[in-house]
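Sample entry (398 residues):
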Amino acid sequence: MENENAKKKTRSILLIIVIAAIIGIIWYLERDAAPSNSSISSTGSNGNSENAGLEGGIASSDVDTSAIDAESSKYPAAPELAGIVHWINSEPLKISDLGGKVVIVDFWTYSCINCIRTLPYLKEWHEKYADDGLVIIGVHTPEFKFEKENANVENAVKQFGIKYPVAMDNNYATWKAYANHFWPHKFLIDKNGRVRYDHVGEGGYAETEDMIVKLLKEAGKQVEKTESKVEGEGPSIGVIFQTQELYAGYSFARVDLGNTEGYSPDNVLDYEMPSSILADRIYFAGKWKNNDDNMQHAETEDGQVILRYTAKSVHIVASSTNVSEPSLLEAKLNGESLTEKNAGKDVFIDKEDGKSYVRVDQSRLYNVIGTQADYGTFALALISKDEKFMIYTYTFGS
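Predicted structure, serialized as tokens:
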């Protein structure tokens, strides 16, 4: 009898685990439909309730201006842009001068993979709705020091094909004015300068566009939503078990280095690679300078960075102390050179020696393991060939 009860108990536990897993999968697949609300819009700007009855839209001839203005007044006024040190694609703008238009204030930074994945949607909205009064302002608030450089941001804007205004918020003044805490984070402002909606992170694109169209119609524009042509990366069950973003610099690191030597701020340490490594920890071999936001290879002898991760794709944010003389990295996965099957778009395979390399010639995000690679747990080794290479962070996709 005891054995039978034990079996029943075991089956019950297994059933609960299976049900919990199913609920988790459903939540993940559906999560884009429920955008987060920031503190600035918590007084009433709930994305779901604001979009109730959006289907069919509002014809401009049916607009009740007084009712719209009364509804708009319930929402918080958009803070003014503050402390902008440089503008790209535009003369300086003020929110107060954009009355009658619909404005998106998009907080981003150019080396952020999550921000980069949202750019095709922002560019499409600019193309579709700018002539109808949509103004997108990309507020570029830097995460790393190199993202404060005008030339770096201007080059990124050009490479990404961004045509809308970009404001460089190097000192976080606008970020603080909006009580922001995330990259990316979009705030949608109506014709009266009120924050009607916001969304944190990726996803929620259809709902955000619904709100853009709604607010343009409130502004009296004859506009209809059309099908998006953007092919975004779809969700994958693998992401549930994906390694989280890892930072290399001592001021940014959320977990300790895998090496027993640990960090020694602003000093050069000679790291030894242990015989075995833990998952989701960064390990170094050779001499490395401990900087606040990166680790810099500090000798001409080969140095290594090794990480055991779980995901499909891998990106790194990296730079060189002299971008006019690119750093060369050799990349290996489980001890083998990368192949066409798993190599990222920033990897080239040398025709002579068959080895896989990354040429670090800018301060930016580099795709090392591509989205076409298999999902699983792997050991990625990056071998630095000079003392110019700097690594900031790892990010992942599945």
